[in-house]
Amino acid sequence: MTTDTESATSIAERRPAKRRLGDLVFSGTALGAGILILVILVAVTAFLIAQSLPALTEDPDENPILKGESFLTYVTPLVFGTIWAAVLALLIAAPLSIGIALFISHYAPRRLATMLGYIIDLLAAIPSVVFGLWGALVFAGFLQPFFVWLNANLGWFPLFSGTVSATGRTILTAALVLAVMVLPIMTAICREVFLQTPKLHEEAALALGSTRWEMIRMAVFPFGRGGMVSAAMLALGRALGETMAVTMVLSASGVITFEVLTSTNPTPIPANIALKFGEAHGTGVNALIATGLILFIVTFAVNAFARWVVSRRAEFSGAN
Predict the structure, then answer these.
(1) Which of 46-55, 115-124, 242-251, 311-320 shows the lowest mean pLDDT across its residues?
(2) Segments forming the whole domain that contains residue 193
(3) In terms of Cα–Cα distance, which of 137, 132, 71 is closest to 271?
(4) What pTM was estimated for this model as a whole?
(5) Rg (CA), the chain
(6) What's phi and psi for 181, nearest 5 deg?
(7) Does 46 reside within a domain?
(8) Which of 66, 78, 200, 249 is the most buried (most CB within 10 A)?
(9) Is the Cβ–Cβ distance between 72 and 226 less than 8 Å?
(10) Count: domains in the chain
């Protein structure tokens, strides 16, 4: 009897499982979508490289955008402006996002937390052009008196030195608008990470006599460190590629400067492309595409680093 049972079991194990039509369609669609993403990525990369070569190999004197300077000299201030605006936005948004996420996950009552979650998520649905209009027409004028105060009281610090812009359309205003735009994605990720903290860790910290803040500092933050870093990197990637809001808010000059209150501001690559693409012609278009290739490389590197952090965090189980 035992032998018959073992024989039937071995036959069932050797027999291939029957695959239903729905399973085949779903697996094929998922595989096709994955392959399509890779094909699009390769095609975009090939297009950027092919269109950038004329600007990188021709005489700069004949390029209407480069105007006699080398491509490296032209793109260096743009790379600085892109990274500087994104870093300023991240420095502003990161503490706010972590604080809001922590309040929603561990302090606010359930109804208030749900309402705040909806409001934060709603910010992600607002088009960037709306943020740009708000920043240029309302927010810049609102901040200008505050910039004057900063310059008068903290002008000894290099960031707040120089002559204050009369319109308020500075790199700091653009960074604040970018911070509002990246707030939803960073807050949402941090909130989910904080909610996944093992309850055993939190209850153990409270049982040992910790206050709520001590429990958060000893249990929640260590568990969510990788998630907070990955959220910051994803927000940085969003800020690096933002175009319309920065273009509409920033009074760009294309220089390298750390002063954040003056009318002489660095120009991010997306804003430079948006401002000059309409009048570009000939190899000038190739020069702008070449700057887009640099932006593509920077953004890809940031997102790759974020994915690496997320994958490392996924290997850790806080319940153990």
Answers:
(1) 311-320
(2) 58-314
(3) 132
(4) 0.81
(5) 26
(6) -75, -35
(7) no
(8) 249
(9) no
(10) 1
